[in-house]
Amino acid sequence: MTEPKPYPTAPVELPLRLEPDPEPTAGCDVCLALDSQRTEARMRGDLSKVSDLNVEIRRHAHGS
Ligand SMILES: [Zn+2]
After folding, report:
1. Rounded to the nearest whole angstrom, what is the distance from the C-alpha of residue 35 to the centroid of ligand 1?
2. Is pTM beyond 0.85 here?
3. What pLDDT band is residue 20 in, cutting at 50, 70 and 90?
4. What is the largest CA-CA distance in the chain?
């Protein structure tokens, strides 16, 4: 049995978007270290740490 909805469901913009994990840059020790910490944090279920590390990896810009 389906109940009628009082209003149509609008697409909801979530404040916390789930972005795909950034890829570590191959050959960069910093990125590789961050990536392994991220894997570790994910296995612990520490998602806020995972997202911190994602930010760091994304910010670790490489010149070219
Ligand atoms: Zn890097």
Report:
1. 10
2. no
3. confident
4. 59
